[in-house]
């Protein structure tokens, strides 16, 4: 029986998967099954961390505003400051 050469579709799919994980270390960038698992894990992490990044930057923003308020000698906290801004219609 003659040898049958397989098509290129599966190879193309694996190559696409490898492009995503090309910067991963070790088997995570070489073995097909591990690549698939790590790709899923990376996508989950990136989705979760986009929201976490927004949360972290908001906390940093509040901390910085608090520091500036206290530097000016106004002994306020962030929530009272923002409340006063809304009252005086400087913030919308």
Structural descriptors:
single chain; 92 residues; mainly alpha; RIBOSOMAL_L20_CS; Ribosomal_protein_bL20_C; Ribosomal_bL20; RNA-binding
Provide an overview of this structure:
- It is a single chain.
- The longest helix has 40 residues, at 32-71.
- By secondary structure, this protein is mainly α.
- The termini are far apart.
- The protein is rod-shaped.
- It has three helices and no strands.
- It holds the Pfam family Ribosomal_L20.
- One of its GO terms (cellular component) is ribosome.
- This is 50S ribosomal protein L20.
DSSP strand tally: 0
What is the gyration radius calculated from CA atoms? 26 Å
Q: Helix count?
A: 3
- Strand-residue fraction? under 5%
- Shape by Cα distribution: rod-shaped
Mean pLDDT: 91
Major sheet details: none
Given as residue ranges, the uncertain stretches (5+ residues, pLDDT < 50) are none
């Amino acid at each position: 029986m003659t040898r049958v050469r397989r098509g290129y579709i599966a190879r193309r799919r694996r190559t696409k998967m490898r492009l995503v994980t090309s910067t991963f270390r070790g088997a995570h960038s070489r073995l097909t099954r591990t690549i698939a698992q790590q790709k899923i894990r990376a996508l989950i992490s990136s989705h979760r961390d986009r929201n976490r990044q927004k949360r972290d930057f908001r906390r940093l923003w509040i901390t910085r505003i608090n520091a500036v308020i206290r530097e000016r000698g106004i002994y306020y906290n962030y929530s009272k400051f923002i409340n006063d801004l809304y009252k005086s219609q400087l913030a919308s």
